[in-house]
Amino acid sequence: MDDVQPMQWTTDCKDLTFDGVVLVTESHDSLPQQLECLAGPLRNYTLLDMGFMHSMPLLNVPGLPGSRMVFASTGPVNRDFDDVRRFGEAAGRGIRRAILAGMHRPLLVCPPHHDYPQSTLVAALGALHELYTPLEVREARRKDSPHKVGILGLWVEQEAQGQEVVKLADALESGRLVYRDIGGSDPERMAAPRVAEYVQKLFADSPVQVEVLSDLHVLEKEYPCLAAVNRCANAVPRHQARVIKLLYCGDAPVQNTLMLVGKGITYDTGGADIKAGGVMAGMHRDKCGAATVAGFFQILAKLRPKHLKVMGSMAMVRNSVGPDCYVADELVVSRADRRVRVGNTDAEGRMVMVDLLCEMKEEAMHEVSPQLFTIATLTGHAIRAMGPNYSIIMDNGPARRAKTAAQWQKEGEVLGDVFEVSSIRREDYDFHRGKSEYEDILQSGNKPSTETPRGHQAPAAFLIMASGLDRCGIDSQNPLQYSHIDIAGSSGPFPGVPTGAPLLAMATKYILNTSKDS
Length: 518
Description:
The protein is an alpha/beta fold.
């Protein structure tokens, strides 16, 4: 993608290709010998100002590119609660300072730390996050460069490392750029039909196959729960739903099959249970689950792992309010032939995903080592339970036995895409069991998730029950691994730029660990 920030690596921190240095490290004492030219000025500065590590000093250093250096200290990284995110955060702050100083070709220097071998890559990703330009801004400046700096330099210790770091940073950032474009753009620029156009153009010349479903009769027949949510928006052509299916298959025998369903609510009014009190602002971000799916396929297209097959479904729907909107008390029969009573129309995310999950379940029976996932900005309870910045993952029985959630949490630590693990309990299933003869399953309670006990775990039980995955548990003849990921907290602040979570964890687990063997 041309819109990804250009990068160039060097082993020379005095490379005059660049016009300034951004140093990311704990302190001058932690620098390797080949960076002594950076350590010396920092020692001298310490004699002048002992508090410099808590600021963002711009030093005049003759002999360096542009004769200037920004020191972006990570602070301590050896305490019980520290992790690799310190390097990405420091790099982001350093790049902001470099731009203010007028740098157009900053050289990012972040030597590997003995406890964090991927600190250089994490710092690069932190800088790239800061350098992202929103899609609407890029399109408004078509004649100008879409980039905030001309080139981002990355210092590496050895030449062999340089090409690999830039390749990985470019691939991961290209996926995050797609995620931010879809997830962060306003509800008209990324209404469902325009998301489909964006994705089709993105993968037009790539190993990723794209299929877009828009026919209302098909949606009503195949995905009745999604069609119920779409019913109101369907009256407005530019808001009509799209199901976007993606397929990637490596060119070697398949060893693992990932099956991803992403929530893509282009705008969430709450529907008939309308969001009130100013909480509707920011609801264009309710499509970051689907954005994750598209972003992951972009990384696949870049790195092309050989033994991996990935199937994705993006449920792009607007939860509108009006005369034809679905309402609480409606009975909708899911694809799995389960009668679902709507309890709250603001619980639309589970509705648009559940039939796509059921379809994935049906197809999984014919795949090699299938693993099913739903990814969604699903509940405010996820933020209340774990705070912002953390994705939550929870497994069904077969996935729990395979330790899927624990593995995602471990892999997420590598590049700072952090997770908390939750469990789906019997109370979650009990909560969604039908309360009368009319319905098999209750879609939601009347209260918001933030006011509902186990408000982020119970929706996973609903997805399992209404999709028929409860017939594929550890007690069945055909157990299927399924995990639900709630990224309501980790997808990013509003106002602000979406983070790309959980793309880095996914890429680390399923691509980077095997890329050397591919």
